[in-house]
Amino acid sequence: METLKVIIVDDEKRVRTSLRHLVTMYCPNAIVVSEAGDVETAFTEINKFSPDVVLLDIQLSGRSGFDLLKKLVPINFKIIFVTAFNQYAIQAFKFSAIDYLLKPVSPDELVAALQKASTLIDKKDLAFKIETLLANMENLSHEPKKILLKTQETVYIVNLSEIIRCEADRNYTRFYLTDNRTILVSGSLIDYDETLTPSGFFRAHHSHLINLECISKIEKHKMTVVLKDGSVIPLANRKKDALIQFLEKSIK
After folding, report:
1. What would the pLDDT profile of 42-96 be if each residue is shown by its tens digit?
2. What is the reported pTM?
3. For the chain, how big is the Rg over CA atoms in Å?
4. Which fold has domain 4-137?
5. Exposed e or buried b per residue across 112-139, where buried means at least 16 C-beta atoms within 10 angstroms of its C-beta
6. CATH topology assigned to domain 151-250
7. Which side of the chain, N or C, has fewer Cβ within a 10 Å radius?
8. Euclidean distance between CA atoms 124 and 106, whole angstroms
9. What are the CB-based long-range contacts (under 8 Å, 24+) for 85-94?
């Protein structure tokens, strides 16, 4: 495995020092070639050293890591955001499939992130991820509005309001959208359950995740949920009371 060239970009000297120490101690396949505390210095250092990976803080002395990325388009390196942001920002990273580390950074998470970064970069894929992240970061007081869905051939940026439901399909998940499209993506339903449930989705059955905004009615005697597109979804008995209680609270 070739050695990864890493640049650390953070406006706090102690954070840069800590990250450099962690890389040196725990990541034998990586070397810190430079560091920077502001956008202009980072821009210069990245162009000088052509890193494989940039550990990038979001807040940079009155500017942001996104200001730096806009100056560097097209991006030819992997990005791992290092952040102390709130829950909405963390959800934004998850929805955008962008790698991130929470401060204070743990050695194990840093090692895992750098190992993942050693794979070949897909520039088009990265561009979609950054576009989705920027859209979700526009207003951090609200839930993310977009999610990145990847198939073998295509990367989709989808509004959450377009998703009617998700259905497990072995090791894949099939998304059903409002325009009658379906998108089959790699990954189990449980992965999307963890991502989407905080944003208004409900696991009605072990094979089905539904958008609560798309519920038309609950047929309690049949143990089914009817969605606005006419889909009839089985409702697990242990989920019935929780779903009804949730809906009652949401309309008060």
Report:
1. 999 999 999 999 999 888 877 878 788 888 877 888 888 888 765 656 776 776 7
2. 0.59
3. 21
4. Rossmann fold (3.40.50)
5. ebbeebeeeeeeeebebbbebbebbbee
6. OB fold (Dihydrolipoamide Acetyltransferase, E2P) (2.40.50)
7. C
8. 30
9. 85/58, 85/140, 86/140, 88/140, 88/141, 88/142, 88/143, 88/144, 89/58, 89/137, 89/140, 91/136, 91/143, 91/144, 91/195, 91/198, 91/199, 92/133, 92/136, 92/137, 92/140, 92/144, 93/133, 94/195
CA nearest neighbour of 95 among 53, 137, 153 = 137
Question: Which two structure tokens, joined as six digits, stand for 114?
Answer: 């750098």
> Domain segments of the chain: what residues?
4-137, 151-250
Q: 24: how many CB neighbours lie within 10 A of its CB?
A: 12
**CA–CA distances in Å: residue 7 to residues 32, 42, 44, 145, 207:** 6, 8, 11, 31, 43
The predicted-structure confidence for 145-186, as pLDDT tens digits, reads as follows 888 898 888 888 898 899 999 999 888 999 999 999 999 998
Look at residues 83, 52, 91 and name the one whose alpha carbon lies nearest to residue 66.
Answer: 83
